[in-house]
Amino acid sequence: MIKDIGWKNGEWRQLDDIQLSVKDRGLRFGDGLFETILIKNKKPIFLDEHIQRFKNSLKILKFNFLFEKLLLKQIIIEGIDKLNLKNNDHGAIRINYSRGINNNRSIKVNLLNSSLNTNNLWIEFYKIKLDFNPLKVYISEDEKRNEYSLISKCKIFNYMQSIQALIEANKKNFDDALFLNTQDELCCGTTFNILLKRDTKWLTPRKESGCMPGIMVNKLLDLGLIEEAYLVPHFKKDDILVAINSLSCRQIIKVNNLELKSEFSPKYFWDILCS
After folding, report:
1. What's the per-residue H, E or C state across the chain?
2. Are 102 and 108 in contact (CB under 8 A)?
3. Tens digit of pLDDT for each residue in 248-273?
4. Is pLDDT of 3 > 90?
5. CATH T-level fold of 135-274
6. In terms of DSSP bridges, do strands 135-139 and 248-255 run parallel, antiparallel, or are they unpaired?
7. Could you tell me if residue 201 is left (phi over 0), alpha (psi between -120 and 50 degrees) or otherwise beta?
């Protein structure tokens, strides 16, 4: 069984063999978008929701073209088949789209494209193991999310802010980092959304905080299992704090110097969402 495979320009290759131009705007400027999708039982989980968020992000950041949903689904179905997972295996799909080749040094964008350019699209497929391990997190002092920025609403190539917060946390012997926004409101983690159980209620930072509109969080909201709330980083020992994204669900057991005492199985939400 292969561990990864990718699609670009109508061809299937091992990921190490997929090449991008040094003039690609995604490489030069981080000018690109992506989505990460879980594969379970050889099927993409919440595919329509991920594609819709991808389309929303393309619109927000003015990638002005007609989106070809059917083409994308066909590539994904074929890629899962080529990955040749067993029934109990999990996989991940990453859809990437850059704004294309930049022929000069300017960041100026050509807004005349009216259809999806498959030269700017590549899709990656991996075999993975789900991560339910606990986390110790540090609230970043160096970086804050800009709740007013358009890019806070989109999954973009540029992860430099998250990388800086992670380096900061790792230097202090923490596994990962949490972000506050510019008003010191609790927002999100470097690569995950946050769930907080306080007393009998499950809460998650409101979208106005600048957190990513997560697929898993939106599902929990739709099911009425959690509520959006204005949250500040004043945690209690009895709080249950969970880091969740499309590929993992992990309990946060320590925030800065505070150890959270309550026990929780992260698979609880995962099984509800992905069953």
Report:
1. CCCEEEEECCEEECHHHCCCCCCEHHHHHCCEEEEEEEEECCEECCHHHHHHHHHHHHHHCCCCCECCHHHHHHHHHHHHHHHCCCCCCEEEEEEEEECCECCCCCCCCCCCCCECCHHHEEEEEEEECCECCCEEEEECCCCCECCCCHHHHCCECCCHHHHHHHHHHHHCCCCEEEEEECCCCEEEECCCEEEEEECCEEEEECHHHCCCCCHHHHHHHHCCCCEEECCCCCCCCCCEEEEEECCEEEEEEEECCEECCCCCCCHHHHHHHHC
2. no
3. 999 999 999 999 998 888 987 788 88
4. no
5. D-amino Acid Aminotransferase; Chain A, domain 2 (3.20.10)
6. parallel
7. beta
CATH architecture, domain 4-128: 2-Layer Sandwich (3.30)
Q: Tokens representing 192?
A: 């995950």
What CA–CA distance (Å, rounded) separates 189 from 204? Answer: 12
**pLDDT of 237:** 94
Contacts by 18-23 with C-beta closer than 8 Å and gap 24+?
18/122, 20/98, 20/122, 21/101, 23/101, 23/102, 23/103
Burial class (CB in 10 A: 0-12, 13-18, 19+), 128: middle
Summarize pLDDT for 134-184 with one digit per residue, the tens.
999 999 999 999 999 999 999 999 999 999 999 999 999 999 999 999 999
Tokens of 226: 């959690």
Domain ranges, ordered by start, for the chain: 4-128, 135-274
CB atoms under 10 Å from CB of 55, counted, come to 15
